[in-house]
Write a structure and sequence with these properties.
13 strands; seven-stranded parallel sheet
Length: 328
């Protein structure tokens, strides 16, 4: 089979592209700079220069493929410049799906996120859950809008499957989860938010969930391809047992984080503040739970993510090697 993949130079997209190649498939990867994607080309992946924000640039690469994986996305939290969020997450999704419909491509997989549900208040929701309130971050808001576009295209007959990952971790990550692990390992994590929880899924399992959605997923359906839910506090306790490195003992209640967020919102209007001290970053960490049940994906796709303890041990060992930190 021949697949067109957006976001292949990213964490999830890169692993999806590699697993497709390992499965014997032909992959065309949309890249903005071929010079920065030599590792993909070395695997036999065809590089097509273009950008999801430029619909015309994708036409030649997408025409004639058997399936599309639209994984590209803007995922920054707490940054001041959020101008690319709408262009990539919203307009980019519309561009990809409209071309998919125009070319009559047999099936597509769109990467949404559990964050479209915003804070679930500790409730483990499923794919039927609908959230219609204000979103906590620009990432959440624009991905929710893109998710709605995908559902509208499905209603119009597009053979699309939506997957919703949670927190994705593993060697090579560049997200805020990676930053948290690095701060923990280097003793620079100042505090831990109470009650904050996500569903933790190893990168290889997340990518496998995408392939299962293409292979077994029913067009028009959504699948939560997330791992088990754990609070940040519990994950750091698990990390301590694995590495012998003590984590921060200071725990911040949600109310305190919200007050800090409000204060930094005022301060940030006058002076620049670090991303991880911005009002948005603190708000996202104020006891928020981005959690959902993967029961449907397990039942219908055969999705089976590894336990966090197993994946965390590998990930921390990799991070420590990069930082040249010896186990204690």
């Amino acid at each position: 089979m021949k697949y067109f993949v957006t976001g292949a130079t990213g964490f999830i997209g890169g692993q999806v592209a590699r697993q497709l190649v390992d499965g014997g498939h032909e992959v065309i990867a949309l890249v903005r700079s071929p010079e920065k994607a030599k590792d993909l080309a070395a695997l036999g992946i065809k590089l097509h220069t273009g950008d999801v924000t430029n619909k015309v640039s994708m036409r030649a690469g997408m025409n004639g493929v058997d399936g599309v994986y639209h994984i590209a996305g803007w995922y920054k939290i707490g940054v001041k410049d959020r101008s690319a969020a709408v262009a990539i997450n919203v307009d980019g999704t519309r561009n990809v799906l409209e071309l998919m419909k125009e070319f009559g491509i047999a099936k597509g997989v769109y990467t949404s996120t559990l964050a479209v549900n915003s804070d679930t208040g500790g409730k483990l929701v499923d794919e039927s859950y609908q959230y219609n309130g204000p979103h906590i971050s620009e990432y959440d808001r624009t991905k929710a809008e893109a998710h709605q576009i995908a559902e509208e295209m499905i209603a119009g007959g597009l053979p699309l499957v939506i997957v919703q990952p949670g927190g994705v971790y593993g060697p090579g990550d560049t997200s805020v989860l990676h930053d948290t692990f690095v701060q923990y390992l280097t003793g620079k994590l100042p505090l831990v938010p109470q009650r904050s929880a996500i569903c933790w899924c190893h990168i290889e399992d997340t990518a496998r969930g995408h392939l299962l959605a293409m292979e077994k997923g029913k067009a028009g359906e959504s699948y939560i391809i997330a791992g088990p839910p754990h609070t940040v506090i519990d994950v750091l306790k698990m990390a301590e047992k694995i590495t012998g490195i003590a984590g921060p003992r200071m725990q911040a209640p949600p109310g305190v984080m919200k007050m800090m967020s409000a204060a930094m919102g005022v301060v940030g209007s006058f002076v620049p503040v670090p991303d991880n001290y911005s009002a948005e970053y603190l708000r996202v960490n104020a006891g928020v739970t981005y959690i959902g049940s993967n029961a449907k994906a397990k039942r219908e796709l055969g999705f089976d993510p590894r336990p966090l303890a197993e994946g965390l041990k590998e990930t921390l060992a990799w991070e420590m090697a990069q930082l040249e930190i010896q186990p204690r």
